[in-house]
Design brief:
This protein is an alpha/beta fold. It has 13 helices and twelve strands. 45% of the residues lie in helices and 14% in strands. The longest helix is centred in the first third of the chain and has 16 residues. It is elongated and about 85 Å long.
């Protein structure tokens, strides 16, 4: 049986292809009697326009791409879940790219996405979290954004003027420190994250700021840099606990490193939070699965993804969007933090 095309529908209804397209996409007013005639023909023939036909008619592919740095970190799938659900409501499908934080791989994906003519790109991690991103890497994204809307999530590219949606990580880190100080902690350490990444620097600055307000400091030996993985959390906590005097509380750069820190502390025979308090950051589902359940900061990952798609949809359709959308973090207090214990 010959498949019916949009041209066949237009010919039978005695209208233009553009009119059929307007009915299919509800993109412009069409006389009611004409609309009914077209819909009767569409239903009788069980016509469904394919993606290629839609892209030729609308100059759009109905596809949004998301570039993220680590699909194994539960924070990023949570952002994707929010984006994907909102995208489905708006009629988009997704092209998911895991860059592994590799800038060369990001560039390869940007080239592929340009060729695939995606309607918009959501960018997370990698170069947009580098404190001083090389100008050529910035320009590459700026050049692409001229024809393809780009929204950055929890990051930025200095001087790019690109649209950003992010959670106030500094405020979240401040909440964690104040919570620990209220519990009587005075010797606090920071664990994990790469020193050249803005997401690490922002948190450490915030921790130092609040400690200073209370006449305390974050000593250099109380900062342990690494990456953002569970293994890094364990290794760095091992190093921290090897020092002559252990801290009473540890702030981890994310929930992943906090899980590693908890594992290390347990292997050293320490009770959590009786002997040492440990906090995470991100508010991922993992924070509820670990024992003890983790005190953490929610970055509203689902909402970040949802808002990113809403913003892209407006940009794709020529609408106005705020350059920056900031979400409030939320401190979630669970069982991994408790009153400070005096350490001899």
């Amino acid at each position: 049986m010959k498949s019916v095309t949009i041209y066949d529908i237009a010919r039978e209804a005695n209208v233009s292809v553009a009119t059929v397209s307007r009915v299919l996409n509800n993109s412009a007013p069409v006389k009611e009697s004409t609309r009914r005639r077209i819909m009767e023909i569409i239903e009788r023939n069980r016509f469904q326009p394919n993606a290629l036909a839609r892209s030729l008619l609308k100059k759009e592919t109905g596809t949004i791409a998301m570039i993220l740095p680590d699909i194994t970190n539960p924070f990023f799938p949570e952002v994707f879940w929010g984006a994907e659900n909102m995208g489905r409501e708006l009629g988009y499908t997704f092209f998911l790219c895991d860059s592994a934080g590799d800038y060369k791989r990001e560039s390869e994906y940007l080239g592929i996405l340009r060729e695939r003519r995606v309607d918009g790109i959501i960018f997370l991690g990698g170069r947009i979290n580098v404190a001083n991103c090389p100008s050529d890497l910035v320009q590459e994204v700026v050049d692409l954004s001229v024809h393809t809307p780009v929204v950055l999530v929890n990051g930025q590219l200095a001087g790019s003027g690109l649209h950003r949606i992010f959670t106030d990580e500094a405020k979240g880190a401040e909440m964690v420190v104040r919570h620990l100080i209220e519990l009587g902690h005075r010797d606090i350490a920071f664990l994990g994250g790469l020193e050249y990444m803005s997401t690490t620097r922002v948190k450490i600055r915030a921790v130092r700021k609040v400690l200073k307000e209370h006449g305390l400091e974050l000593a250099p030996d109380r900062i342990k840099y690494g990456d953002f993985s569970i293994q890094a959390g364990k290794t760095l906590m091992d190093e921290l606990l090897a020092s002559p005097r252990r801290p009473t509380a540890v702030i981890c750069v994310n929930d992943f490193t906090a899980v590693g820190a908890i594992k290390s502390a347990s292997e050293h025979g320490l009770g959590i939070p009786d002997d040492i308090s440990i906090t995470g950051f991100d508010g991922t589902p993992l924070s509820e699965a670990v024992i003890p359940e983790l005190t953490t900061v929610s970055q509203n990952a689902y909402e970040l993804g949802k808002l990113a798609v809403e913003s892209l949809h407006k940009l794709i359709n020529g609408g106005k969007v705020k350059k920056q959308t900031v979400l409030e973090p939320r401190l979630i207090v669970r069982k991994s933090t408790g009153p400070a214990k005096k350490v001899c």
